[in-house]
Design a protein that fits this description.
Elements: H1 5-14, H2 21-33, H3 37-45, H4 52-66, H5 76-82, H6 89-106, H7 113-117, H8 120-135, H9 140-153, H10 160-170, H11 177-196
Length: about 200
């Protein structure tokens, strides 16, 4: 790999093709074999005016979902502070999914590195971006991952569940069938949590 890491991974992303599993796994394998490229992958994901950022986010999410969620932890400052700036739908979806993974890991019963690495500042940034994604036009997958993540973070932050409930009841539940189904599921979880605290 004689070229600069950034140039090398950019070329690989540009040659990725469609979002097919095989294509994402092929480029993910290059990063998995050369972990130094992961930082560049994060950098490109948040180069929000560049369409290559879409493919970078696909590979970033693939690695976090199927291989190493912990690899994102040293980059949480960048990842969480830049979420708000994402422009392309196709880049927002993978990042929303990573946020959901972080929330699930943070509230897992098992000890893990996410619990040690994810700070209040990171959580606040994810929550802010999440509510923004719920009130702006987004694809159903972004809404689904975000509602789930916000439900988890609302287990600690008392104000989140009422806000989330209001948004689901007044807006999201009137959107597509998929949004309605996920919204109802989240409302059920919020109510169950509320009763458990009485």
């Amino acid at each position: 790999m004689p070229k600069s890491n950034l140039l090398y991974i950019t070329e690989e992303l540009n040659n990725l093709g469609t979002a097919k599993r095989d294509n994402r796994q092929r480029v993910a394998n290059i990063v998995l074999e050369n972990p130094d490229l992961f930082k560049e992958l994060v950098t490109i994901t948040f180069d929000v005016d560049n369409k290559t950022s879409i493919k970078a986010s696909w590979v970033l999410e693939w690695i976090c979902t199927h291989h190493h969620l912990n690899w994102i932890l040293p980059h949480l400052d960048t990842f969480t502070s830049q979420l708000y700036h994402l422009k392309f739908d196709s880049a927002t979806r993978p990042c929303a999914k990573i946020c959901e993974h972080l929330a699930v890991a943070y509230y897992s019963k098992n000890d893990n590195d996410v619990k040690k690495a994810l700070t209040v500042k990171h959580i606040d940034a994810i929550v802010e971006a999440g509510f923004d994604w719920l009130i702006t036009p987004q694809k159903i997958a972004v809404r689904a991952y975000t509602m789930n993540a916000l439900y988890y973070f609302g287990l600690e932050k008392d104000w989140i569940h009422p806000e989330l409930k209001h948004l689901i009841e007044t807006k999201i539940i009137h959107e597509s069938k998929g949004c309605k189904a996920r919204g109802k599921h989240i409302l059920f979880l919020i109510e169950k949590h509320r009763k458990s605290r009485l």
